[in-house]
Design brief:
This protein has 455 residues and is of the alpha/beta class. The protein folds into four domains: 7-139, Response regulator (Rossmann fold), CATH 3.40.50.2300; 151-315, P-loop containing nucleotide triphosphate hydrolases (Rossmann fold); 318-394, Helicase, Ruva Protein, domain 3; 410-450, Arc Repressor Mutant, subunit A. 48% of the residues lie in helices and 12% in strands. The protein contains 19 helices and 14 strands. The chain has helices at 15-27, 38-47, 64-74, 89-97, 110-140, 151-164, 180-189, 208-216, 233-236, 252-264, 290-295, 301-307, 323-339, 348-356, 362-376, 390-394, 410-424, 429-436, 440-450, and strands at 7-11, 31-35, 52-56, 80-84, 102-105, 170-173, 198-202, 241-245, 266-267, 276-277, 281-286, 310-313, 345-346, 381-382. The protein has a five-stranded parallel sheet with strand order 2-1-3-4-5, with helices on both faces. It has a five-stranded parallel sheet with strand order 7-8-11-6-12. The chain has a two-stranded antiparallel sheet with strand order 9-10. Helix 1 links the parallel strand 1 and strand 2 (31-35). Helix 14 (348-356) packs across helix 18 (429-436).
């Protein structure tokens, strides 16, 4: 439905009525397609989309009820208004039962027709918005969405796409909160295993015996409490991808068992001597350098080489600051949708605070800030007051002059600050103006005063 000009289909076998309605609704600013019978009306619906259909009930050949039934079957979201010169309670009831939005009889007042059409179009708009909202929620729950405009991350994603097509083992390296599991899901979705399961396991979260049971499964009676046979995560991931997070934290004895599964492509459940073949791709991840873990004796050398066919390194958020505004607004939309809040803007002051912070918790920490801000915002704007108070004191990218023999002037400090912000946004004047809390014209004047090209 076009917000500027909704499209209405009129079907009536009376030429005068058709011409009058066309004139009335075109004058209202609607697009109108007029048809003299049901057959031509249905033919038009095959060619283009309509936001509303008004059809005469009694027509030779394909009548209004036939048109209504066809629309209910093919495009049930489109409301239908019935028009007839043969008003009767029975025909009105039949039309409403068949799914008509409204029923009006000839002769009808033009004001009444306008009001009924406005109501029907509002209903159409609400239904479309609800559908779009559901789609947005679905899109936001897509666990392979990676938001970036950073060239380095884009090159990384291109490499990940290429590697995904093979079955090679992959190690993802990155600090906590950089999105290692998200990248693993991205690889899975771009692989030939995309229709198979994706299963994640944190290697350092459980005691060795419990971890072995979780990964490889166990037979009934294998140990105290094993009252039934249980398949492990390797078997659960059959035909898909198993993501092993923090693999460097896995106990050495578990590493031996994992290596055997990777080499032999088979496993044995705890308490069993029967090998079970497995077809699983392993993607491992660590926030530590695995080579260093090998040198320190915390990881087996043979397992390291088996896993480390390809290494993908995710940069921390502080090294991809251009992504902060993009991620912030993506998260703003996400949490606004989830909380059913109308928070659509981030103030320049709040954005500057977000841009200056160093994010030891990376994207996960930014997500927490935005979620908190959406929950606290009183109107449609997330402001500084909605961010944690400690954020300002924890900021590390504070723009200030180096110590000098004489203090710099306010004008010099302002110049340095403007240049730093411009550098941060790669010279984008619009973004810079937003971060500085001024309009673009004011920024242009300041740059002109400084003798900087302001095009």
């Amino acid at each position: 439905m076009s917000e500027d000009s909704p499209h209405i289909l009129l079907i009536d076998d009376e030429a005068i009525a058709l011409a009058n309605l066309t004139h009335v609704f075109e004058k209202e600013g609607y697009q109108v397609t007029a048809c003299k019978d049901g057959e031509s009306g249905l033919a038009e619906m095959q060619k283009q989309e309509f936001d509303l259909v008004l059809t005469d009930l009694r027509m030779p050949g394909i009548d209004g009820m036939d048109v209504l039934r066809h629309i209910r079957e093919t495009t049930p979201e489109v409301p239908v208004i019935m028009i007839t010169g043969h008003a009767s309670l029975d025909s009105a009831v039949d039309a409403m039962k068949a799914g008509a939005y409204h029923y009006i009889s000839k002769p009808f007042r033009l004001d009444e027709a306008r009001e009924v059409v406005r109501g029907a179009l509002n209903l159409r708009k609400i239904k479309r918005e609800n559908s779009e909202l559901k789609q947005r929620i679905s899109d936001l729950s897509n666990q392979t969405t990676i938001i970036t405009q950073d060239l380095g991350v884009q090159r990384l994603l291109e490499t990940a796409r290429q590697i995904a097509e093979s079955d090679a083992s992959i190690v993802i390296h990155g600090e906590s909160g950089t999105g290692k599991e998200l990248l693993a899901r991205f690889i899975h979705q771009h692989s030939q295993r995309a229709n198979g399961p994706f299963v994640a396991f944190n290697c350092g979260a459980l005691h060795e015996e419990i971890a072995a049971s979780e990964l490889f499964g166990h037979e009934k009676g294998a140990f105290t409490g094993a009252t039934a046979t249980k398949i492990g995560l390797f078997e659960a991931a059959e035909g898909g991808t198993l993501f092993l997070d923090e693999v460097a934290e896995m106990p050495l004895m578990m590493q031996v068992k994992l290596l055997r599964v990777l080499q032999e492509r088979e496993l044995m459940r705890v308490g069993s001597t029967k090998p079970i073949p497995v077809n699983v791709r392993v993607v491992a991840a660590s926030n530590r350098d695995l080579k260093t873990a090998v040198e320190e004796g915390r990881m087996r050398n043979d397992l390291y080489f088996r896993l480390n066919v390809v290494t993908l390194s995710l940069p921390p958020l502080r090294e991809r600051r251009d992504d902060i505004p993009l991620l912030a607004y993506y998260l703003l939309r996400k949490f606004s949708t989830m909380m059913d809040r109308d928070v659509s803007e981030i103030s320049p002051e709040a954005m500057q605070r977000l841009m200056e912070y160093d994010y030891p918790g990376n994207i996960r920490e930014l997500s927490n800030f935005i979620e908190r801000g959406v929950a606290l915002a009183q109107d449609n704007t997330l402001d500084v007051e909605h961010l944690p108070q400690s954020l300002g004191s924890l900021t590390v990218r504070v723009f200030k002059p180096e110590m000098a023999a004489t203090p710099s002037t306010l004008e010099e400090q302002e110049t340095e600050h403007i240049l730093n912000v411009l550098k941060m946004v790669d010279g984008n004047r619009t973004k810079a103006a937003e971060m500085l809390g001024i309009d673009r014209v004011s920024l242009w004047r300041k740059l002109k005063k400084l003798g900087i090209d302001s095009k």
